[in-house]
Specification:
- By secondary structure, the chain is of the alpha/beta class.
- It has a single domain (52-257), classed as 3-Layer(aba) Sandwich (Rossmann fold).
- Helices cover 35% and strands 25% of the residues.
């Protein structure tokens, strides 16, 4: 009899504890729920590529960022003399069909190699907003702009989750060998899509993972299919337009911002 009473008491304590736990979960604030949902988009794995951070988005591991480096090695890699021969940057710029007066956002601009090449194409009234999270890169960019006497490139410091661009302010946003390194790709794509004007374009330039001959570490490559998969969320409002295959090593994958539907 005593045993039965003890079991009944233990059962009641257990049920009360479970009820209190479930009740406390239901009292979370909306901001906490949102954070939990955002985190659930990502997966952490102990077994991963040493060149990646062990964080996965839609099955793809995010690569380590190529930083400025203690001696500026990262910036020197971006500015290397053979880059035109290897990547045909001039052909990339030509493929973008830039027009005078356009506002362009160069996301992950680094020391500004791509920004500088685009700046002349949008003169006299257009500009390039060069976004980067590394202050050293932005400082080097400012020095380069001063040396080259270029006045229509605007450095802008972003964060890991935002570009700091104004909503509906950009005709073209471009990421050159950058997207695969973003620590929060979903949040950044949402932010970038909000900065685009209706009909504006978002361009991913990524090393082709489909091609084993491209001499880049595997985690720093992306397939066209994976890029399309990650840009497909309805909240981005993006639609694939075309993929340009003219470059030696990279895809140029173009999306267009769709007009907001009535009632949004």
């Amino acid at each position: 009899m005593k045993c039965s009473r003890w079991l009944l008491s233990a059962f009641l304590v257990l049920m009360t504890t479970c009820w209190l736990t479930l009740s406390s979960r239901g009292e979370d604030k909306p901001t906490k729920d949102t954070a939990t949902l955002a985190d659930s988009r990502y997966e952490l794995r102990k077994d991963h590529d040493p060149n990646g951070i062990g964080k996965f988005f839609l099955g793809r591991e995010i690569a380590h960022v190529m930083g400025f480096g203690p001696m500026g090695q990262g910036a020197e890699w971006l500015e290397r003399a053979v880059r035109e021969k290897e990547e045909k940057l001039s052909l990339l710029i030509k493929s973008l069909d830039l027009k005078p007066g356009m506002v362009i956002a160069d996301i992950g601009a680094g020391s500004g190699v791509i920004s500088v090449l685009m700046a002349e194409k949008v003169l006299p009234d257009g500009k390039v907003i060069a976004v980067d999270v590394q202050q050293e890169m932005l400082d080097r960019l400012r020095d380069n702009l001063k040396k080259l006497k270029i006045s229509n490139v605007e450095p802008l410091k972003g964060t890991q989750k935002t570009t700091q661009l104004k909503p509906s302010s950009v005709d073209l946003a471009i990421m050159v060998d950058v997207y695969h390194e973003l620590e929060f790709p979903y949040e950044m794509l949402l932010d970038i899509s909000k900065s685009l004007k209706s009909g504006g374009r978002l361009v991913f330039v990524e090393y082709r993972k489909e091609d084993p001959e491209v001499p880049i570490k595997l985690v720093h490559k992306m397939t066209e299919e994976q890029v399309k998969k990650e840009a497909a969320s309805a909240e981005f409002g993006l639609k694939w337009s075309k993929t340009i295959g003219a470059l030696p090593w990279q895809h140029v994958i173009v999306f267009e911002k769709q007009p907001a539907t009535t009632g949004e």
